[in-house]
Amino acid sequence: MDALLATLVSGLVLGSLYALMSSGLSLVWTTLGVFNFSHGALMMVGAFVAWTISEVLGLGPVVGILSGTLAAGLIGVIIERLLVRPFYNNRNMLLITAMTTLAAMVILERGAQMIWGARLKQLPRLVPGEVQILGTTISAHEALLIVLAPLILVALWRFTVMTNRGRSLRAVGQNQDSAALLGIDVPVAFALAFGISAALAGLTGALLGSIRFITPTMGSEPLTKAMIVVIFGGLGNLGATAGAAYLIGFIEAFLIFGLGLYWTPFVLFLLMILVLLFRPNGVFGGK
Amino acid sequence: MANKRQLLAIVALFAALALVPLFVTDSYIRHLFIIAFVYAVIASNWNLSLGHCGVFNFGHLTFFGIGVYTAAIASKTFGINPWLAMLLGGGTAALSALLLAAPVARLKGIYVVLVTFAFSQLVLQLVLSQSQITGGAEGMVRLPFLQLGSYSFLKDFKFGYYYVGLALLALSCLFLAFVSNSSFGKSLKAVRDAEDYAAARGISVARQRILALTLSAIFTGIAGGFYATYLRVASPEVFGFGTLSLALSMVLIGGVNTVFGPVLAALVLTFATEAMAGLQGFEDARFIVIAVAMILVLRLAPEGLVDLLGKLRLPVRRTQT
Q1: Measured between alpha carbons, how far is B307 from B302 in angstroms, rounded to an integer?
Q2: Where are the domains of chain A?
Q3: To probe the interface with B, which of A95, A105, A230 has the most B CB atoms within 10 Å?
């Protein structure tokens, strides 16, 4: 029973992490129709910037995390402007942007390697101490992640549903031309979606930086997990994406418990291919 | 596509490559040529599915990796002759491509990217998890090398390996030229450019996609087998983003609609990256340079640099006639 509860809690931590990662990926997909391969690298940038501000400049973890979030968001806007926008009207935009964002990933990862080097780094925990949930002890920092993830998701959801700016993102995602006719500045909406998504990635990275080591390639594993999540949830629906994130978190935790660390990723990818074959719009997807 | 002038240039290129070892005795330069041949096979075969057929296949390097590991396991674990093990790599790669093609043929757009990418991750995880067979993250080392009778191909500064690599590239090019000029190759382009029309003319879109993927895996897998017997290591690194983006940049810079563009790009880029690796502080920056080059090509010359060169030459020809 204890083991079961511990697995549940670890699934909850993983699910929160995946929810933060995949909501950004899904936002860019619904608004721009772009699958951003550099999403994981943006997360890594957030972690490194947070580490530099907090540890090297000594401004503390809160300022660090905020600057990491901001820096990743800025780079996201730059990526949209330079690597995505020029290809909007291209027939093969989908494939081309997959390749340009892959190139962006290479540039960011190698750039980080050059700037920060290969030495392992870690951020201090935002909140010290430990917390007991369901009889399982986890660090207070992980508990903060569990609390923060749903709050951010709800904020994002409220933004896209209840504010004009947010609604403009969805309008652009559904029909660019008619959105433009309604007076929505389409390029601004695109830049906004990319910026928010990248900022979310940066925030996730900065938070993760005190749980895992900060390395130039720290983003690639969460990116592939986020990819599995978006496929499970179906590309294009924030609620379904969030649900799928927690589902995958729990599945992964139970697979690790039952099958061990080695077989878990294999089974997850197999599940992903099966879902794509039989329910290409996601487990919760309609149409 | 293959006019006389181009054909002549290609024959001249291969003749020149065949003469290189007579003048270059430096083992390191020869090594670079061999690696370039391997990349040329990967990139030009990838182009068959990506460029000619328009399948957004992001798992092409997996076929290469499967070739590497097949040859490694066959020759080291089972003691099969390395020559045969190398060819076996092509067989298993084609088989895995057939397996992958079944779902891919049914899907469209971004889902093809995602499934092929997931497939590459699946194989990588399998390699990592089966460490008693594959050596796990450390990989396999001291693999058997190529021999002919009692002559070891490691001797004479890689003389033998150079020609095996070149022969592999030549065979692969002949194969690709044959495929792309056949009616099958033309139907692939029809599927890419006008799917509905092609289907209306009686071309089975799914079948052509499956065939294109499977054919593109054969020489890629053999190249993997060759790579394993040459470097004598099999490591999970071949599945990584690094090799993927390098090979992708070769396809794009060389031109997605040609057979020989990626071959040229592979030769040039292999030497360019190696030259940059020698410069102080460029160990990581060279990958950034290539990524930027890839973006610029997509932006300015989407048909590839080789095509751009062809366009630049056109006005000159007109003034001559």
Answers
A1: 9
A2: 18-218
A3: A95
CA distance B222 to A171: 50
Alpha carbons A10 and A4: distance in angstroms, whole number: 10
- Residue A210's nearest CA partner among A123, A149, A119 is A123
**CA–CA separation, A124 vs A55, rounded Å?**
9
Q: Do B291 and A220 count as a contact with CB atoms less than 8 A apart?
A: no
What's the pLDDT tens digit per position in A169-208?
888 888 888 888 888 888 898 999 999 999 999 999 999 9
A227: which chain B residues are within 8 Å (Cβ-Cβ)? Answer: 114, 117-118
- Kindly give the interhelix angle for B205-231 and B60-72, rounded to the nearest 10 degrees: 40
Q: Which amino acid does the sequence have at A253?
A: A
Which residue of B110, B249, B284 is in closest CB contact with A113? B284
Res B315: pLDDT: 45
β-bridge partners, A118: none
Whether B285 contacts chain A with CB within 8 A: yes
Domain limits of chain B?
Answer: 27-238
Q: Is the pLDDT of residue B283 over 60?
A: yes
Q: How far apart are the C-alpha atoms of B234 and B231, rounded to whole Å?
A: 8
Point out the residue among A99, A100, A107 whose CB comes nearest to the CB of B288. Answer: A107
Compute the distance between CA of residue B144 and CA of residue B148 in angstroms, rounded to an integer. 13
CB of A260 within 8 A of CB of A272? Answer: no
Residues 225-284 of B with CB under 8 A from A: 241-242, 244-245, 248-249, 252, 281, 284
Asked whether the beta carbons of A76 and A42 are under 8 A apart, the reply is: yes
Please give the angle made by the CA atoms of A10, A14 and A18, to the nearest 5 degrees: 165
So what's the ipTM on this one? 0.84
- Region of A236 on the Ramachandran plot (φ > 0 left; ψ -120 to 50 alpha; else beta): left
Q: What is the DSSP letter of B148?
A: E
